[in-house]
Amino acid sequence: QNRDELKSDAAVISDTGMIARGTPTPSYGLGGVTALEIKVTGPKMDLHSGVFGGAVANPITALAQLLATLHDRQGRVAIAGFYDRVKPLEDWEREAWRKLPVDGDKLILEETGAPELFGEAGYNSMERIWARPTAEINGIGGGYQGKGTKTVIASHAMAKLTFRLVPEQEGDEILKLAKEHLRQNLPKGVTMEITTGHSGPWYLTDPHSKLGEAAQRALRKAFDRDVALIREGGSIPIVSQFRGILGIETLLMGLALPDCRAHSPNENFPLENFDGGIRLNKAILQELAR
Prior knowledge:
Layout lengths: L10 E3 L12 E5 L1 E10 L5 E2 H4 L6 H9 L23 H8 L5 H9 L12 H7 L2 E9 L9 E2 L2 E10 L5 H14 L6 E10 L2 E2 L5 H14 L6 E3 L5 H9 L3 E4 L17 H18 L2
Parallel strand pairs: 1-11, 2-10
Antiparallel strand pairs: 2-9, 2-11, 3-7, 3-8, 4-6, 5-7
């Protein structure tokens, strides 16, 4: 109802990241997301494992078995039809990402502290994060969580899942496929409840459009370096609403660094990028006015 009042040439958001300190980084794509929660139930109450163990199914064991069916041993999502709509990477994208001023695989290992890289075969770390869909288990719980041991068979167990989406996947379709997969693979002796959660679509724009070129010029002016064109795996659902409702594209010009620890303890933002953001806001207004 406020479309006319919000009429504009473009939206500008800096809730994305830089590929490296001081490297201006326009993001021309974002992942989508959709979520669900699973509750697996067995007995009506927690049971003594010495009295009932072996006679009834353990919901925690059943949940673990069920979640293990979501991926193959190489990390590829095993849900039937999950990849059917995925738009392949363009050749120019793979070439541009190979020329980025960082070693993506090394960066991921340094920032995460993981013992080794892991993921879908045929893609490097940046390609997996920016252009391939995922199924993630974000939380899991059940049974006794206190100190020491309590010999129980839990009444129920739960897990929280999200699916990161890429062009041209549809969130509702992915949820439907995921629910069907979970129901088909549910172990015997338990029941399951599935509750859907939040969702948001993917976003992809043309970095070589008139607006995209204006963003690149502004970033070069603000940071006095060549830009690094990337996509990102994270989601900002409102940008699709800007496009659908207001008919405008969004310029994603990141200022967060790879070590910002987003969604983790000690999340941070460098003071130098506050100054850079001021220069960038001035520059993008000048470029859009040309």
